[in-house]
Structures are given as C-alpha cells and as structure tokens.
Amino acid sequence: MKRSFLFLSAVLCSALALWAAGRFDGGDLSAEAKRWWSHVEKLSTDDMAGRDVGTAGYRAAAEYVAAQFEAVGLGPGANATSYQQKIGFTVFRLEEPKSSLSLFTDNKAEPLTLGEHAYLSVRVAPAAKLKAPMVFAGYATRVPQLNYDDFAGLDVRGKIVVYFTGQPAGVQGPVVSHNQSLRNQVLAQLGAVGVAVINNPATSDIPWARASQARFNPSMTLRENKTAGPQLKLSLVINPAHADKFFAGTGHTMDEIVGLARDKKPLPKFDLKTTLEARAAYTKTAVDSTNVIGIHWGSDPALKNEFIVVSAHLDHLGTNPKLTGDQIYNGAMDNSSGVASLIEAARHFRDQGIATKRSVAFVALTGEEKGLLGSRWYAENPVFGKEKRARVVANLNMDMYLPLFPLRALTILGVDESTLGDLAKQGAEEAGVEVWPDPAPERNSFVRSDQYSFIRNGTPALAFKFGYKPGTPEEATVKAWLKERYHAVSDDLAQPVDKEAAAKYNRVLASMILKAADAPAAPRWKESSPFAALAAKQ
What we know:
Blueprint: H1 2-22, H2 29-44, H3 56-71, E1 75-76, E2 84-94, E3 100-105, E4 108-112, E5 118-120, E6 129-137, E7 142-143, E8 148-149, E9 160-164, H4 174-181, H5 183-190, E10 194-198, H6 208-211, E11 219-222, E12 234-238, H7 243-247, H8 254-262, E13 269-279, E14 282-296, E15 306-313, H9 332-351, E16 359-365, H10 373-380, E17 391-398, E18 409-413, H11 419-430, E19 434-435, H12 451-456, E20 461-466, H13 473-484, H14 499-518, H15 532-537
Parallel strand pairs: 6-9, 9-10, 10-12, 15-16, 15-17, 17-20, 18-19
Antiparallel strand pairs: 1-14, 2-11, 2-14, 3-4, 3-13, 5-12, 6-13, 7-8, 14-16, 18-20
C-alpha cells in the first residue's frame, strides 16, 4: 500500500511539473513576439542614444522598464515605493591628444600610433607618466586549484606584464576563467606596474579596427569601492598585427605565439628587450545611474525571503562622435533583447496567475559594459523592496542570448556547476527545449557577464544562449553576428531577428524560473565545482 502511494505521488508530482511548464504554452505566439519586439524597439531607438550609464538616454530607458515592471504586476524592488536602486560612478575619459606611447630600444625612442599599434585603456586609472621594462608572461594565468602558474619563477616587479589571451590544454574551463578575471589584482600584488594584452586574433570577437574604437568610450568605477587593494598604473591593448615590434630582439615572434596557442600548448615566458614609456591624460567626473528592480513576491511563508534574481543589463555603449555616419550604439541584441525578456517572463507569471514559493526579483542592471559594475553593486548590496531580511539564493542572467534562428536548444552556461543548472535544465526540457553543451568554451562566457558578480559573491548562477552545434548554419550566423554587429552601430533594429523564437524563449525562461522558485531546497554549488569554495567564504 505504501509503495503504491509513493508511486502515485511520484506520478502526480511529475504530472504537476509538466502542467506547470505547460501553463506557459498555448496562446498566440505571434502576439507575444510582437509585444517582446515592441520593448526592444522602444529601448533601441535613436532617442535612447545608446543607453550609456549616467545619460538622459539611460534614464529614459530605466523609467520605461520601471513602468513596464509595474504594468505586469511586479512590486517596487529598490524600497517600498521605488523600482530604481541608485548607484554612484566615477567616470574616466582618456584625452588621447595629450597622451602618447613610445618604445625604447638602447635608449632610442620609437613613437607608437595610438589606435594603430596599441591603445591605452582607462579601465585602470593610468599614471600621468610611466616608463618601465616589459616581460612576456604567456597566458598570465595562475590557477592554484590545478597547480598551474605562469608567474612561477618570473620576476614581474616594477614591470609591465604582456600576455596573450587563451589557456593551454588541460587548464581550461570556468575555474580558469575565474582566475584570469583576477589577473590585474594578482599582478598588482606581485608588484607589476602595468599590463598589456595581445588578444588572440583567432578567437577575438571584434576585429581590431572596431575594437580600437573602444578607447574613446569612458570607463567607470564604483564610487564606493569596497574591494580596492593594490592597483596597476597602466593598462594597454596591443594590436596583434604589430606585436612583433614589442618582441624585437627576443628570438620570439607573433607567429610562434599564435601557433602554440592554436595547439593549446604552454607559451614561453621571457623579458622583452624594449622599454615602454606611456604618458596619459584623462578627465575624471561623477555620474549616478540605477538598477531597475521589480519583485514577484513568494507565497510560501518559509521561503518567500529567499530570492531568485533574474537579470539582464540595460546599459549599452552610448554614442561615438568619432564615427562617420551612424554614431549610435543602439544595442538591440546587446541587450534590449534580454531586458524585454525580463518584462515578458514576468508577464507570464501574472497572466497565468502563478504563485511561486520563493520570491523572484527581476533586475535590469546598469554598468555591465563598464565592467559588470551594476551587478557587482547589487550582489554586494541587494535590496528587496519592503523586505529587509531576505537573501539572494540564485541568479539567472541574460546577455545577448541571440534569437537569430528558431529555438531548438539552449546552451546554459554553468549548467554543470550547481543544482540550479539541474533545475534550469529540467525546466527547459519540460518546456520542449533541449540543452546542448557550450560550443565555444574558449570564449569564457560564463564569467564575462553579470552572472559573474553573483558567482564571485558565492551565489549559484547561470546564463543562457540560443544553442547551436559546430559546423552548422546556426554557428555561422552567430559568428557573423559577432564579427559584424557585436559592439557595433549595426546592432540596431534593422537586423534580422527571429521574433517568435524569442517569444518561445520567454516561455522557457518562465519555466526555468518556476523550477528554481519552487524547488524544495535552495540551489547550491556542487561539491565538484571550484566555485563551491567561493560560497564557503561568504
């Protein structure tokens, strides 16, 4: 009798799960697609001027999202009455005409052309003048968990560390990406004075001609920086086409480095024969911006103070007056698409009358393009509207999920790291969508967007992309988009988008949220995950 009861209970639970996912099916998909696209259109018009942090365009976008959150039944999430969480930023803008770079060989100076040979980044506030020797540190990666250290036996004190993007065979995956994200912090602690990156041209998303335009964009830091430690004095990006100029006299070449990286072999480490002198001028100002937060309150008295955060960044790159013709980075796929899905996923819960056990915070984040700053602030300073005793237990993030073709499968970044991945996979599959492995792990996407701020804070997190397999037309479509539209003015409303695929994704997203919100236990990192150690530190 007991066995029969358990069997019937299991069948009933399975049926309820399928029914819950099914509640997001049916209805007019084309109408949902038009509504999703209407949000993308609104947020990506020229009137929004690229939604740069601290601008009138961003403020207008934030007000629109707050109004939409209210319209779909979400409560205010910044405090009891407001949807917007205010954040202060310090803005750095390079004055390139007053800046310069020169290479010195045997005390003979060779001026470099900014934007052609290399460019200065103000992600690190540069010293007004710095002259220092250089050292090539391979991938400049230290992974204690895997006993891998490019800095072992290498003297970097007082030097500018040059490195090549990538990682060798056997030292790959999210844990490596996490450690690489800490590179500047490690270098500063080791006594280096600066860093210079050579991006692998075989894996770079953006061609140099467009990537170098980024030097005209302002960089930002949080005005209240709780984690400031030793800081580097220089950050530089070197054009791979001119890297041999830096390697002159060492016996090493760019072709050698590219070949070793292609085969995922370790890279050599060696002192460069040249010294770099940098003169940098920049302006420093202050701006405010906001995260926009709406809350779907949980119904279970024991679980409603545990929050699932569903996020997408609202900011983009603004405008670039240095460009001829179109100067507005509209950011339709990056990331109006994700914010539109926040709104529509929340609408599904309202329209279907779904009460979740845990609360769900829908958060449109600022400052992603400035270094994940809005999500970092929220992860460290979460707010929950009228509730003061709540905590974040999971994050589901969207950034450029790219609905460019029919939705057959999702790639869920981080799916194997936590029980949250198991829940999301169940939710996707019950909604009729397969989950496929990451087809481009070398892009390190798991730690390249706002989910990483939650990961660093110890919270299980995931991110989503439309799935494709290597060698397919879908892969070619994604690669072409990255080459031609990523961080380009062509990421606008004129590009081809599969709107009904996006609407289907919104239903799948709602199903995945429901799985996490109603799970008996809060998501946790798996013991096999290297990120479990981050949670243990909290």
